[in-house]
Amino acid sequence: MHSLETIAELAPRLRRREISPVELMKACLERIEKLNPALNAFVTLCADSALKEARQAEKEMALGEWRGPLHGIPVALKDLIDTAGVRTTAASKVFENRVPAQDADVVRRLRCAGAVIVGKNNLHEFAYGGSSLVSDFGEVRNPRSVEHIAGGSSGGSVAAVAGGLCYAAIGTDTAGSIREPAALCGCVGLKPTYGRVSARGVIPLSWSLDHVGPIAATVADAATVLQAIAGYDADDVGSADVPVIDYVGALRESSKNLRVGIPRAHFYDNLGDEVGAAMARAIEVIGTLVSEVRETKLDVPTDRTVQLAESYAYHAEKVARAAELYQPETLQRIRAGEKISAAEYTQRRRELDEARRSAHRIFEEIDLLITPTTPMPAPKIADLKKDPAALRPAELTLLRNTRPFNVWGLPAISVPCGVTHAGLPVGLQIAGPRWGENLVLSLAQAYEQATG
Asked: Is 154 considered catalytic here?
């Protein structure tokens, strides 16, 4: 992991003008030039506009017009998030020449906060996978070990943060696409409550399950980014008009009164030995930080009909027009939703609504849930490539523990909780009730501080 300063450390120094946003941006561009050829985290670099934005931030700071802790901070975007005048490809030939006319809502909010947009990150084509091996731009590689996958679908965004190429990034998460790569690369990935961050201007994988969220080096940095991007968007049908609370302030709240549940069935099944050992140690530490740790049972949703049907619905016309532009693996996944009837989709969509309505019951006796983020560390790229039939099963295993929280629409974070003997990171997932990002962040921060 890089040893860059964190956003929390940099923000006051930028404000006091001890360092300049331009210097910061130039340093990022140098690291990108040096490391991106190995990691393949960026597909479009906005060097000129980023330096221009950094100069503008510098001017504003000189006039005392400080916009907050993201002012002048280099941030990257998964390349399915629209940027006005900058190509947004979803890592696919289908959108090779697609240049949006306006920014996604999340980008507009970042710009208002003074963030500097570095560029667009590589991803698993159309976000349809958990490895980032299937992309028109080639695979993303793990900064901890370039022979291993970075995870996906936000693989490039996580690799950029974990590799020190930027200070934060925005990813999307439909079944675990922020948290799973964060776990595999050893950084922090947060999926907020469904509807907390607008998905308008984000190329969808599944409207009902897509979440937009921050990737950062620390819990405090993730909270800072969430603070800037959270909020109601009247033009996004999935957005919820719920007040945004002080997430950064929540980091100072004590975790001492929290009750934590351990759902062994499903989430702790068939763990790799080193993941199991790391989790046992993590649970021990958490026991010292909260009021109670207890075993709990969950009825875990595993049906994927809604996602399959919605992915097909978005792509059907494009597939009919130019199927050959898709990577064969992506095409196969999209077509898996072709035969789902309207009646079946409607029924499953209703069940999803019911699951979300009743998810609050999970938290009647507990405040938070603790699971491994992934059951195993990052697989080797060569192993997954030599047997193409093994790719999807491996991805589904990697996403097994993250997916239920997309169905429930609940906030969940992945924080590092150890490394294997081979030096591969292990992630701890903390999930909470609807709109309970503050609780999730509070325990994540306490754990991070207790374990360094």
From this structure: no
